[in-house]
Amino acid sequence: xxxxEKVAAVSELAEVMKASKGIYLAxxxxxxxxxxTLLRKKLREESVNFRVIKNRLALLAVKEAGVEGLDEMFAGxxxxxxSEEDAVTPARVLTEFADQAxxxxxxxxxxxxxxxxxxxxxxxxxxxxxxxxxxxxxxxAVQSPISGLVFCLGGVLQKLVGTLDAVRxxxxxxxxxx
Length: 178
Fold this sequence. Notes:
It contains 6 helices and 5 strands; from the N terminus they run H-E-H-E-H-E-H-E-E-H-H. By secondary structure, it is an alpha+beta fold. The chain folds into 2 domains: 4-128, Alpha-Beta Plaits (2-Layer Sandwich), CATH 3.30.70; 129-178. Strand 4 (106-112) and strand 5 (115-117) form a beta hairpin. Helix 1 (4-19) crosses helix 3 (55-65) and helix 4 crosses helix 5. The N and C termini lie far apart (114 Å).
């Protein structure tokens, strides 16, 4: 019979999963406490949440949240890494941290908008640029044709002014020589 604490914990986990844009399961076994603390700090700086979960309760929460495809990933030490702001940031931060910490933690799986990502797919996700970089590229792409148009129009106007100035000079020359 489930206790009220466990029912509340499952409900809380389900709400966290529903509110998240990106859900990742990470195997943090092999990391000592100071390293896990450092990992949590780096994740927090990127507005990403990390929590250690009990697999049995997480399985119930996944079902309650309607997240499908992650059931077999709840084995061993599992950390739930979520973000309400950006779906890819958790994967990128976990991978960068693992590169510096002997390959730990290992990302077991990711879940974004109904799709489960594993292994090679996760690697592809981690190589995506951050949201800010994508916005900057978008602004640059939109701004580039406009800048080119302004530059071309400026050249046309400069030629027009030069032509009008030449016509004025010629008329003045004709007017003084007559």
